[in-house]
């Protein structure tokens, strides 16, 4: 659905039956449609996740995820992203018009659900976007590279304080926490043989800084994560 491209960064449709589910920290808000083993269907909002979580697997015959671009959830949902941090709630709790949406989704043709959910979200867009909308998008792009909050604010022509205030509301996290998560997500998406080289490339002061940040966000050291020694929660 091309109209969703400016708003949704990634769409995944899969059957979830892994023995373990790894959920890294994520600055994005995600719309999730799932059907469980009992055939029950629901549409959820997963807000920004500040730390990683690890869960024992469960069978989900359908699991569709629409990952909203960081900073763009508020116009789509009508709710500030900082109200959704580390929360998973029914979409209908955020959008009253979403009540009954899951009943319109066909489990035999789950790919069609993208159009149904996407249309529902786009219909909620205000006629005029917030005046800070483009600024937030630029800040997200800047902070996704190894750049400090001060450098980002300076490049955008605003104060650090102003950037922190509007960024937290739109994205759900402080600019500094967003940048930390972006760096760690970049690390776990690649095959790293040398953590010292990775530290330099990702903008860390040194390897010990990388390990400390990784442990704080992923809840384990890089070595433990690489070998699957993680704290699994039964669900």
From TrEMBL:
Domain HTH araC/xylS-type intervals: 133-228
One GO MF term attached to the UniProt entry: sequence-specific DNA binding
Pfam family, one: HTH_18
Protein name, entry field: AraC family transcriptional regulator
SMART domains reported in the protein's UniProt record: HTH_ARAC
Domain of life of the organism encoding this protein: Bacteria
Keywords, comma-separated and alphabetical: DNA-binding, Transcription, Transcription regulation
InterPro entries, per database record: AraC_XylS_family_regulators, Homeodomain-like_sf, HTH_AraC
């Amino acid at each position: 659905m091309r109209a969703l491209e400016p708003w949704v960064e990634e769409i995944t449709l899969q059957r979830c039956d892994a023995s373990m589910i790894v959920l890294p920290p994520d600055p994005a808000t995600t719309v999730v449609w799932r059907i469980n083993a009992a055939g029950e269907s629901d549409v959820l909002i997963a807000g920004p996740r500040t730390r990683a979580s690890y869960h024992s697997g469960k069978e989900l015959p359908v699991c569709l995820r629409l990952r909203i671009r960081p900073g763009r959830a508020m116009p789509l949902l009508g709710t500030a992203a900082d109200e959704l941090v580390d929360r998973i709630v029914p979409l209908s709790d955020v959008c009253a018009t979403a009540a009954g949406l899951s009943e319109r989704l066909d489990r035999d043709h789950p790919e069609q659900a993208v159009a149904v959910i996407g249309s529902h979200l786009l219909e909620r867009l205000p006629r005029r976007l917030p005046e800070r909308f483009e600024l937030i998008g630029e800040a997200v792009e800047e902070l996704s590279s190894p750049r400090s909050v001060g450098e980002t604010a300076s490049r955008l022509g605003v104060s650090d304080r102003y950037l922190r205030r509007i960024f937290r509301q739109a994205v759900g996290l402080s600019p500094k926490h967003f940048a930390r998560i972006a760096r760690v997500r970049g690390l776990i998406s690649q095959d790293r043989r040398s953590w010292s080289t990775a530290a330099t490339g990702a903008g860390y002061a040194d390897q010990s800084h990388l390990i400390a940040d990784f442990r704080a966000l992923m809840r384990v050291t890089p070595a433990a994560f690489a070998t699957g020694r993680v704290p699994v929660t039964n669900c």
